[in-house]
Write a structure and sequence with these properties.
4-stranded parallel beta sheet; Rossmann fold; about 45% helix; 5 helices; globular; alpha/beta
Length: about 160
């Protein structure tokens, strides 16, 4: 008799997690917060926070970790050195080839200089060789058309986020 009770208790304890797993769980309510406004200063920490908000909002189904290029403002003491290093890195990354399912995100308080980096990086990229790649340019409207004209022939999905608003 004692063996039967022990076995029943053991079976009940093993079945309990299965039964609780069968209960339909309520979907968590996604908290949606308003998009952050672009920083109006060259504060790099503020720009990093901004990018942590704006980049995920523009992933559009991209599951891979994005390539994010953030150039400081031109007032930075070592701006030219940072510009040169970022230009080299961006050119190397694009030159190696970016495959479908990836995203390149470019941003800077120095929008025109970042646009120059994007344009230089895409020089020589053959038409339609980057289909399925998303390019996010975060900058000023006057730089948007310059960037768009150079990256779209590569076949990318181009997205522009206006920082002047």
């Amino acid at each position: 008799m004692m063996k039967k009770i022990t076995r029943l208790l053991l079976v009940a304890m093993m079945a309990l997690p299965l039964l609780s797993a069968c209960k339909k769980e309520e979907a968590p309510v996604a908290e949606t917060k308003a998009p952050m406004a672009a920083p109006r200063t060259d504060d790099l920490a503020a720009w990093r926070d901004y990018l942590q908000d704006v980049v995920p909002r523009n992933m559009g189904g991209i599951a891979n970790q994005p390539y994010v290029y953030l150039l400081p403002g031109e007032a930075a003491a070592d701006f030219q050195d940072q510009y040169d290093r970022m230009l080299e890195k961006a050119q190397n990354d694009v030159g190696r080839g970016i495959i479908a399912g990836n995203m390149l995100a470019y941003a800077s308080p120095a929008s025109a200089r970042m646009a120059d980096i994007v344009i230089a990086s895409f020089e020589g990229v053959a038409a339609d060789t980057m289909k399925g790649v998303r390019v996010l340019f975060i900058g000023k409207p006057e730089d948007n058309e310059r960037v768009k004209a150079v990256v779209e022939p590569a076949g990318v999905d181009y997205v522009f986020v206006d920082t002047s608003k």
